[in-house]
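Consider the following assembly input.
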Amino acid sequence: MKQPLARTTTRADLRAIIGDWRQAGLRIGFVPTMGALHEGHLSLVGAALETCDRVVASIFVNPTQFAPGEDLDVYPRMLDEDCDKLQAAGCHLAYCPTEEEMYPEGSLTNIRVETLSDLLDGGPRPHFFYGVATIVARLFVHVRPDVAVFGQKDYQQLQIIKRMTRDLGFEIAIIGAPTIRDADGLAQSSRNLYLTPEDRRGASGLFASLHRARARIEAGTPFEIALAEARDYLTQCGFSKVDYVTATHPETLQTLPDGQAAKGTEGRLLGAGWMGKTRLIDNIAFRRP
Ligand code: PAF
């Protein structure tokens, strides 16, 4: 039988529970979230359970990764429902800290992962990845897990966290878990809740466009042609604005030079665009055989 989910809002209680687990020699996994949990998040809990004896999930809508005018105030908050889902997924502890617990009065310290944070989604929203790195570093200090799991869906975030973990010497293994998709390919995301039924139909075009671009690149089509086709396809699917569709190095996220990928080239195709009022992102690996 699954153990009941423990729930705490304070760092002191969290440390007491984790301290007991550590004394018992248990391996601890961690899944940071902002709540509004869907199957994608629960699959991260599943991935942590594969290698850990105990799993902690945090639920904290982090204000520093929202700019003024973004959706902080309306971001979906459903703590009781989220905790029921965590319990059903086999998670052991939900850490739901207050803002004061994460950012004590007078806090001045932030984490910036240079370069990687300023590309792609970071370009127009420079505050975003600074806020993510800062909260994840603070959560790592509170939880001190052996393993932390992040979704590959937020691919740039995953590379930034890996880099921060390495640079700051956190002794935490970072796992990137595969994206969970609806039957038509749309990557699950808390922000899919904002899509109207009509937007929802067009939204699956994002994954389809990357999938097609991958097939074209792997068959030898030059990047610029395959990526231009993908952008056109997004417009046909009803995306009102395409922020980018690009082929990058899988870790540095630097744009791969135009032209035909040499045999054996591995990379990541990343796309972002607006469906109605909702910005969607997705990505897919490729390898030129
Ligand atoms: O991916 C998210 O939900 C958030 O960016 C994270 C990692 C929980 C930090 O607030």
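Residues 190-283 form a domain with the Pantoate--beta-alanine Ligase; Chain: A,domain 2 fold (CATH 3.30.1300.10). Ask yourself how this observation constrains the way the partners meet.
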